[in-house]
Amino acid sequence: MYKVFIENTPLYFVKNEKGLKSDTFLIKGKPNAIVLKNILSTYRNASSKIRIAIVSDEPKKAMHKLFENYTWVEAAGGIVRDTKHDKYLFIKRNGFWDIAKGKLKKGEDPILGAQREIEEECGISNISFEDKIIETYHIYDTYGKDVIKKTFWYSFTYEGDDKLTPQIEEGITKVKWFSKTSLDKIRYNTFASIVEVMDAYSHFKQS
C-alpha cells in the first residue's frame, strides 16, 4: 500500500480491498489526468474526511502514473531520541509542530541528508543513525507549480548537550525535546503525515 497525502488526507494505492475500511471509495482501471482532477476536487471540497483508493496490480506504478505531470522532489528527516533523558526532538514550523527534515541535494544519500537537515534545523551535532522508519508522500503547490514530495524518515539517537537553536530562515521558531508522555501535544497540532511517521516509529520501537 502507498499513500499520498492531499489536503492532509491520504489517497491510497492498493492491490486489493483487503484492509480498507468499508466506506472507502474504490477507483479501478488506469489512472489519468481526468481521474486526478476529480480526486483533487473531491478532497478539496469535502466537508468531512473521505477515503479514496486506487486499486491496481502495481500500486507504485499507478501512483507514478497519476502524478506523472508533477515535479517530484525528495526530502529526508527523522525523529531523534535523547538517550540520556529519553526525550524526542521536534520543531515548530509556521505554527505547527513538525519533525526536522529538508530537501535532499542532488545525489545525496538520504540518511546523510536527513542527518544534515536535522543538525542544521535544530542546532545540534553528532546524531547517530539508528534505523529506517517509513517513507511518506504528499502534494503541494509552490509558485503555481504542482509538486509531489517523497520523504525518507529515519530514527536517530543523540547523547550531547548542545543548545537547541531553531533555523529561523526556514520558518522554524522553536526546537524542543518532548518526553514520551507529552507527545500528544505534537499530535494535536501537526499534519496527518507526521502522525503517520510517529505511529510507524512507535510500532518500530515496540517490535
UniProtKB/TrEMBL annotation:
Domain Nudix hydrolase: 71-199
Entry keywords, A to Z: Hydrolase
Keyword Transport: no
Record carries keyword Hydrolase: yes
Molecular function GO labels: bis(5'-nucleosyl)-tetraphosphatase (asymmetrical) activity
Alphabetical list of InterPro entries matching this protein: NUDIX_hydrolase-like_dom_sf, NUDIX_hydrolase_CS, NUDIX_hydrolase_dom, Nudix_hydrolase_domain
One GO process term, biological-process aspect: AMP biosynthetic process
Record field: transmembrane: none
Name of this chain's protein: NUDIX domain-containing protein
Organism of provenance: Lishizhenia tianjinensis
